[in-house]
Amino acid sequence: MVKPPRDLIERLTEDLRPVKPLSAWRLLGLALVFAAVTLIWVLGIYGMRPELSDIEAALTQTRFALFKPLLWGWAGLSALHAANALSRPEGRCHWSDLAPLPLILISQATGLWWAVAHGGWTAALKGGFGGATLCGLTIIVSACVAMRLITPLWLNRTASSQPRLLRLTAALGFATLAAAAYALHCPMDQPYYTLSVYLPAVGMVLLIEGWQGR
Amino acid sequence: MSLSQPDLWQQQMRAAQRGEAEPYRALLTALRPWLSAYFRRRLQSPDTEDLIQITLVAVHEKRHTYDPTAPFMPWIAAVARHKLIDHVRKYGRYVHVELNEMNEPVDEASLGLPATIARRDIQVLLSQLPVDQARVIRLHKVEELSLEDVSRLTGKSVAAVKVIVHRGLKKLRDSVGVPRKVYEDE
C-alpha cells in the first residue's frame, strides 16, 4: 500500500545524500578511454597504414588517408553529443548531431555511382575486399564491449524520455569511433568498401544494441 | 528581493543535489500541489494521488539528472509527463491536453505554469509529427483558424486539411498510448 504523502516526503528527505549531477564530461571521458584503447589495439596489433607513417606526405599527397578517420571521428563525437543531450528527462537531440552518418552514406554512394559511371563495376570494385572481416569484427566487437561497459557506468544513471534512441546514439558514437580508429590502419579508401564493410558493421552494432534495448 | 517560484525551486533543487534536506523537503512539499494540478488537468480521473507519489519518488531517484545550470521547470514537467504517459499506458486512461491552453495568458497567481507547461507538452507532442501535419494542427487547433483559412494558408484543400487534422490527432493519441477503443468510443 502507498504511504501517505507526508510520510513519503519525510522518508525521501531523511538521510539525504549529495549527488553528483550527470555530466557530459563523464561520457566524454569514457569515449576518450575507449578511443585510446581501440587505437592501441588497432595500431599496436594491426599497425598504421603506410601513408600515415609519414605525416608530411599524408598531409600533402594522400589527404583522404587522414580525412577518413577524421570523418568517422566527427560522426562519433556528434553521436555522443546527441546521446548526452538525450540523457536527461527533458533532453532532445538536434538532427545535425545525427547528420554525419547519412552524409557519409550519401557521399560514398555518390562516389560509387561516379566510379561505376566512369569505369564500370569492374573498375569501381578494383581494390577487392581485403581485411573486410577484420574491419567488421573490430568495429562490432569493440563497440559492443564498450556498450556493455558504459551501461553500468553511464547509461543506467541517465533518465531519458527516449531510452532506446539514447542507447542507439551511444552505440552509434562508439561504433563510429571504432571505425575512426580502424581507418588509421585501413588502406581501403574506395566508396564501395565503406558502403559494404564499414557501414554494415556500424549497422550491425545498431541492430544488436537496438535489440538489447528493446 | 524575493525569488519567483521557478527560481526558488531551482535553488532548492541545487541544494538537494548538495544533500541539504530542508530545502529539499520544502521543494517536495511545494511540488505536491503543483503535480496535483498538473495531473488533474490532464487525467480525467480524481485518482491522481498514486501518480503524484510515483513522480515524487522519480524526482528523488533521478535528481542527479537535473542540470543545475538549466531551468528547473522543463525538467520537472518532463518527469511528470513521463510518469503520466507510463500511467496511461499501464491503465489505458484518457489524457486530456487542451491544445488551446497555449493561448491562455500567463497568470502570475498560478505562476504562469499551466500555460507554459502546456505549451511545452504541445511542442513535444507536435514534434513527433511530420512538419506539415504539425503545422496544420497548430494552425487549426492552437491558433483556432477555420478549416478554410488553414486551407488558404497551406494551399491544401479543405478536405485534405480535415484528413490531416484527424490523422494527426489520432497519431498523437496513439503516441501517448491511449488504447484505440477509448477514443473511438467518444
From TrEMBL, chain A:
<dbReference type="Pfam" id="PF06532">
    <property type="entry name" value="NrsF"/>
</dbReference>
<protein>
    <submittedName>
        <fullName>NrsF family protein</fullName>
    </submittedName>
</protein>
<keyword id="KW-1133">Transmembrane helix</keyword>
<dbReference type="InterPro" id="IPR009495">
    <property type="entry name" value="NrsF"/>
</dbReference>
<keyword id="KW-0472">Membrane</keyword>
<feature type="transmembrane region" description="Helical">
    <location>
        <begin position="66"/>
        <end position="86"/>
    </location>
</feature>
<feature type="transmembrane region" description="Helical">
    <location>
        <begin position="190"/>
        <end position="208"/>
    </location>
</feature>
<keyword id="KW-0812">Transmembrane</keyword>
<feature type="transmembrane region" description="Helical">
    <location>
        <begin position="98"/>
        <end position="116"/>
    </location>
</feature>
<feature type="transmembrane region" description="Helical">
    <location>
        <begin position="27"/>
        <end position="46"/>
    </location>
</feature>
<feature type="transmembrane region" description="Helical">
    <location>
        <begin position="128"/>
        <end position="153"/>
    </location>
</feature>
<feature type="transmembrane region" description="Helical">
    <location>
        <begin position="165"/>
        <end position="184"/>
    </location>
</feature>
Automatic annotation (TrEMBL), chain B:
<dbReference type="InterPro" id="IPR013325">
    <property type="entry name" value="RNA_pol_sigma_r2"/>
</dbReference>
<feature type="domain" description="RNA polymerase sigma-70 region 2">
    <location>
        <begin position="28"/>
        <end position="93"/>
    </location>
</feature>
<protein>
    <submittedName>
        <fullName>Sigma-70 family RNA polymerase sigma factor</fullName>
    </submittedName>
</protein>
<keyword id="KW-0805">Transcription regulation</keyword>
<dbReference type="InterPro" id="IPR039425">
    <property type="entry name" value="RNA_pol_sigma-70-like"/>
</dbReference>
<keyword id="KW-0804">Transcription</keyword>
<keyword id="KW-0731">Sigma factor</keyword>
<dbReference type="Pfam" id="PF08281">
    <property type="entry name" value="Sigma70_r4_2"/>
</dbReference>
<feature type="domain" description="RNA polymerase sigma factor 70 region 4 type 2">
    <location>
        <begin position="120"/>
        <end position="172"/>
    </location>
</feature>
<dbReference type="InterPro" id="IPR007627">
    <property type="entry name" value="RNA_pol_sigma70_r2"/>
</dbReference>
<dbReference type="Pfam" id="PF04542">
    <property type="entry name" value="Sigma70_r2"/>
</dbReference>
<dbReference type="InterPro" id="IPR013249">
    <property type="entry name" value="RNA_pol_sigma70_r4_t2"/>
</dbReference>
<dbReference type="InterPro" id="IPR013324">
    <property type="entry name" value="RNA_pol_sigma_r3/r4-like"/>
</dbReference>
<dbReference type="InterPro" id="IPR036388">
    <property type="entry name" value="WH-like_DNA-bd_sf"/>
</dbReference>
<keyword id="KW-0238">DNA-binding</keyword>
<comment type="similarity">
    <text>Belongs to the sigma-70 factor family. ECF subfamily.</text>
</comment>
<dbReference type="InterPro" id="IPR014284">
    <property type="entry name" value="RNA_pol_sigma-70_dom"/>
</dbReference>
